[in-house]
Amino acid sequence: MGFWNDPLKAAADWLMDIFTGWGMPELATQILVAFLGVLLLIVILMVLDIVLVWVERKVVSRFQSRIGPNRVGPFGLIQPFADIIKLLIKEDITPSGADKVVYNLAPILSMMSVLILWAVVPLAPQILGADTDLNIGALYIVAAGAISTLSIIMAGWSSNNKYSLIGAFREVAVMLSFEIPMLAVLLIPTIFAKSMGIVKIVDAQDTWFVFLAPLAALIFFIAAIAELGRAPFDMGEAESELVAGYNIEYSGMKFGMFYAGELLHAFTFGGFWAILFFGGYRFFGLEQVNPILAVAILLFKAFIGYWLIMWVRYTVLRIRIDHMLSFNWKFLTPMAFVLLMVTALLNALLAETPPWVYVSSMFLSNIALAWGALELARSYSRREREKVEGPKPAVETTHH
After folding, report:
1. What is the reported pLDDT for 105?
2. Is the pLDDT of residue 6 over 80?
3. What residue spans define the domains of the chain?
4. Angle 89-93-97 (CA atoms, 0-180°, nearest 5)?
5. Burial class of residue 355, CB neighbours in 10 A (0-12, 13-18, 19+)
6. How far apart, in whole angstroms, are the C-alpha atoms of residue 215 and residue 306?
7. What b/e readout covers 227-252, taking b as 16+ CB neighbours within 10 angstroms?
8. Which residues contact 187 (CB under 8 A, 6 or more apart)?
9. Which of 66, 222, 245, 291 is least crowded, fewest Cβ atoms below 10 Å from its Cβ?
């Protein structure tokens, strides 16, 4: 039962015994075992990415009343592998005048920015637990996610194409703008957990943080979709306007790496949404039964978040960029900062109260703030409409 109680540690100890038995120094053995662990995680994520390609194509076919992949393999399961082969044998083109080093580095950084996020993901109490729990894990998420922003501007600038450059500028403008409210609401779980460590945030959720701060969970979800560059925020890939955006000059596996990074990034954000607001791997104590079950719980919650991201993408029309940025700077960002201040204030005032008072007060404050923000937005839109259309004429009433 020791292996199933902590499979990674059991496998690492087994490898350590083998390598040290061959006469390898202990330090070199530890480095090699750590490298093999990282390699195993990357392989699992790559296989997961292949599965996500098939899942997303099947889901969008359902949404849009189409068939989806159904030819290569049963239910089209082998179609993603056929697509990979197609991308591998396509001609690798580098535009004339392009900065070759930056051009070829951009898709690698795009994929790497997703993979390094999983370094701080607590998959189970015994898997990637306290030993790898950074005390600034929440800050690490923001810093690692910013690499994808860098990769997009590198791809647009180095391609020596005006359309790709415009697409990169517009996408980066959106990503940087929506990072502000995301960072603000990311501090709310750290207030509840009194730590920026991801494992401590999960362990502190005896009550899921979504019940304490539902508005923060919603803001994080909206900002995550914008950060991903997915509809309705897909300014970098508005085909009718930008000829496919920042990645127009990429072909073969370089384009495939951008596409794979986007899919895995969406699933990763679904996972962090679950970790920050839905208890991560915790679910009524089942995570203590077996670490494999805890991993399955986390992945299931992450898939629900990924499903919702797909639902929004294939349902909502693209927003105009000026409307998009106005929505962020005039509505979402102020609301996120007000919510952060209200949460910090109530957390200090209600620290000694019973748990039911604390939870209900936090929940009601979120509902009140959301209602007030919607009323302000409604009155603002009414005033703007009257500026364009003029005030509505008074209705004449006749007396009999």
Report:
1. 92
2. no
3. 1-89, 92-382
4. 170
5. exposed
6. 19
7. bbbbbbbbbbbbeeebebbbbbbbee
8. 138, 340
9. 66
